Predict the structure of Quaternary amine transport ATP-binding protein.
Amino acid sequence: MLRLDSISKQYPNNVQAVDNVSLEVADGEIITLIGPSGCGKTTLLRLINRLTEKTSGQIFIEGKEINRWNPIELRRQIGYVIQQVGLFPHLTVEQNISYVLRIMGTGKKKQRERAAELISLVGMDPSYLRRYPAQLSGGQAQRVGFARALAGNPSIILMDEPFGALDQITRLQLQDELLSLQNELKKTVIFVTHDIQEAMKMGDKIVLMRHGQLIQAGKPADFFIRPKEPFVTQFIGGSDFFRLLTFITVDEIITREKRLSAKASLPSGTSLADALQLMFQKNIPEIDVLDGQGNTLGQVSQKMIRNIAATISTDQGDNPLKHTIGS
């Protein structure tokens, strides 16, 4: 568990970069930080690993305040991935990945073994271990950067615009790869991005900041259905209901009934957009949601999605989609 209690950061010129932010992040959860440029996202990230010192408040990792951690041990608990990657140009890929392990005093044999394990984990051939950063593409360098962040087996990964400098195709591919790895590794991830769609896709929970303050935190659907103030809707673009459906999964509105409709099914984690499309195609009012073993978790219906449309329409004006979804 990562917990921030009333965290503030004020610079000597009286700029309030972070203003009284409190937040809890569960183990294995991905939190995405979004907000306008200069809102304090990156500063908040750097306060967690003490690259920047907080002015006031407390940050707890595993119940222990970070100022009570040995700095070296704290760095072992936290991996750090940035947009510029920050690979050492004079070191090979293997040496870059093993750098933290070398500082930790890990033997050379175990360093090599861990580097080979991690390069495969991020989807690269072990032959890349002998290359230098200048010989890598942007996507490959970012994979190596992520492998390096995992080297010490940290419980927390901080990611600051990790895919921001990549082309759209590579960016989408790495997003999918990170989510796939997260299903296996279950790390606690704090992910800073300026891209709203990326935030909605990657985050189990979204945190929106402005002027150093936390404006709203919650599941992606909350920002569309229950915005706390007009700024939230303005920033997210809440009136686009079709886009909303791509961000909400069936798990967020499922009815927990074990009965089988025996008409159609889809896996847990499917977006409401895909669920609705399948119901339209098969001309059915509801659909079963299954877990990874094929067990029925419950159902999602067109009526339930229509109710979401009606909720948004109440706050933001009429939504034509609510008239097209059957009951």
Observations:
- Residues 317-327 have pLDDT under 50 and may be disordered.
